[in-house]
TrEMBL record:
Stretch forming the signal peptide: none
Name assigned to this protein: ROK family transcriptional regulator
Function: Transcriptional repressor of xylose-utilizing enzymes.
Organism listed in the record: Halalkalibacter hemicellulosilyticusJCM 9152
SUPFAM superfamilies per the UniProt record, alphabetical: Actin-like ATPase domain (SSF53067), Winged helix' DNA-binding domain (SSF46785)
GO BP field: D-xylose metabolic process
Record-linked Gene3D superfamilies: 3.30.420.40, Winged helix-like DNA-binding domain superfamily/Winged helix DNA-binding domain
Length: 262
């Protein structure tokens, strides 16, 4: 039911969903602060808060400091009204089960080696997902969604890893990650490159006043995820900010590389 609420993009549900998202972002917030943020009558806001509470999606977070009158009731989300599964496919694989406050409830990690074919690795990933859900007595309806961050480039619209670079396993060209998971789980699934998913996580977990963010990763390569106006900035293949061969010294000597400069 909670997942359907989040996926309901109707005009009727828009204000209530925006209210939930604000409470989620603020972590702990009073009705007065919510009223300042929404151009709705107080009776309408009270009704929306009641509906969210009645469904178990938000809850009381205690009493806030008084500003001269009665101390305000604070609201926060119910972190156990839904769960998220996060998957990282890089030089190692991580499978995470998180609550709605992004706290890690369960975690599995294993290295990527040459022995793993795409089918073998995806089978192991999905077995970990099933085991985590069984351990915590969850079913598909409890999972809000699955987010996959993978070595790019990726085709986000088709849910594919296209041609992963510097990957220890072979045979990963044009692998339909999303389709493979959909065959086992009836949940929404999103695929993006690892740098962008890291940037999204940083933006969502931290409370930034600025809606623009540049998140840089310096590991095996240099990659960046970009948040612009509160949304992930992607190229056609979801690899907008990977750095290829860069000019360091204009007019300098040649260097030996394994591929052509891009």
């Amino acid at each position: 039911m909670f997942r359907e609420f989040l996926l309901d993009h109707s005009k009727k549900n828009a204000n209530k969903k925006a209210l939930y998202e604000l409470i989620h972002r603020k972590r702990l917030v009073s009705k007065g602060d919510l009223l300042d943020a929404f151009a709705v009558p107080q009776t309408t806001l009270t009704r929306m808060i009641h509906d969210l509470e009645r469904n178990g999606w938000i809850q009381s977070g205690g009493i806030g400091p008084s500003k001269g009158g009665r101390p305000p009731v604070l609201y926060k989300i119910n972190p156990l009204s839904g769960y998220i599964i996060g998957i990282e496919i890089a030089r190692s694989v991580q499978v995470l089960l998180l609550n709605l406050e992004f706290a890690v409830i369960d975690k599995k990690v294993f290295p990527v080696t040459k022995k793993y074919t795409p089918d073998e690795m995806m089978s192991r990933i999905m077995n970990h997902m099933k085991q985590m859900m069984a351990n915590h007595q969850l079913n598909d309806n409890d999972i809000v969604g699955v987010g996959v961050g993978a070595i790019g480039p990726v085709d986000r619209e088709k849910g594919k890893m296209i041609r992963p670079e510097s990957f220890r396993s072979f045979g990963w060209e044009e692998v339909s990650i999303v389709e493979k998971i959909e065959q086992e789980f009836n949940v929404p699934i999103i695929l993006n490159n690892g740098a962008n998913t890291a940037a999204i996580a940083e933006y969502k977990i931290q409370e930034y006043s600025n809606k623009n963010l540049l998140y840089c990763i310096s590991g095996y390569g240099i990659r960046c995820g970009i948040i612009q106006a509160g949304s992930s900035l992607n190229s056609k293949q979801g690899d907008a900010s990977s750095y290829g061969h860069m000019i360091v010294h204009p007019g300098g000597g040649c260097v030996r590389v394994e591929r052509k400069a891009v």
